[in-house]
């Protein structure tokens, strides 16, 4: 991959990215929370439950890139303020998506980790903008993208002078339609061969099925992933977005009890 000057493995061995007080690239880091921020009660209750179960960071979308223009688009600034409140109470750093280059500078004031979604992976003006903020960036893999295309997008951010890039494998489109997407777990060790950047997985958007999330999360630990981002909702049946794939707090707590011992059993993977 000859165009990679900063993202390639040759440049350095392994990078860890520090988000608030959480270091990504060492232990298995867990980011959890609802697809979108919907109300104060929803985000506060969910935040408290994921914190109690041992999550390291809180996710929640305030700007939602939806397939239909008529679907709930997110609460915007109000949603960000609610995330700020949840952070204040729980101490969990905030991960939230930014979809428009014009919003990057002010969304970055609320976000500890700025998420670039699959549909925007190759939005080069957005990549340059988040590159200029210096804020840590979670770059999701485009659903139709090769590893090379993905790493070139990381390169866009790095080349703006922002070294804080974390990759996220969230599933790619294949002919299989039982699952929402196909989780490409081989991307984890492959990225570790190609790049020094940390990589986490998203068992939620990749499978789209609650019943598959625990297995895929544990498989990701075994594959050497640096963490995961998973959707949890205090009442999934009432979720305004991605209701079928959100874990209940009790399911998330159960998964957390199984993940940590697995990680310590496996020790440091190459
Ligand atoms: C999300 O994390 O809520 C999201 C929209 O993810 P993706 O961009 O991977 O579909
Ligand atoms: Mn979602």
Write the layout of secondary structure elements.
Blueprint: E1 17-19, E2 22-24, E3 29-33, H1 40-53, E4 57-59, H2 77-90, E5 94-97, H3 104-107, E6 113-116, H4 124-133, E7 137-140, H5 147-158, E8 165-169, H6 187-194, E9 199-201, H7 203-207, H8 210-223, E10 227-231, H9 249-266
Parallel strand pairs: 3-4, 3-10, 4-5, 5-6, 6-7, 7-8, 8-9
Antiparallel strand pairs: 1-2
Helix pairs in contact: 1-2, 1-9, 4-5, 8-9
The structure holds phosphoenolpyruvate (PEP) and manganese (II) ion.
Describe this structure in words.
With 270 residues, the protein is an alpha/beta fold. It has a single domain, classed as Aldolase class I (TIM Barrel), CATH 3.20.20. 37% of the residues lie in helices and 14% in strands. The protein contains nine helices and ten strands. An eight-stranded parallel sheet has the order 9-8-7-6-5-4-3-10. A two-stranded antiparallel sheet has the order 1-2. The chain is globular and about 50 Å long. The two termini are 21 Å apart. The model has no long low-confidence stretch (mean pLDDT 96). Phosphoenolpyruvate binds next to loops.
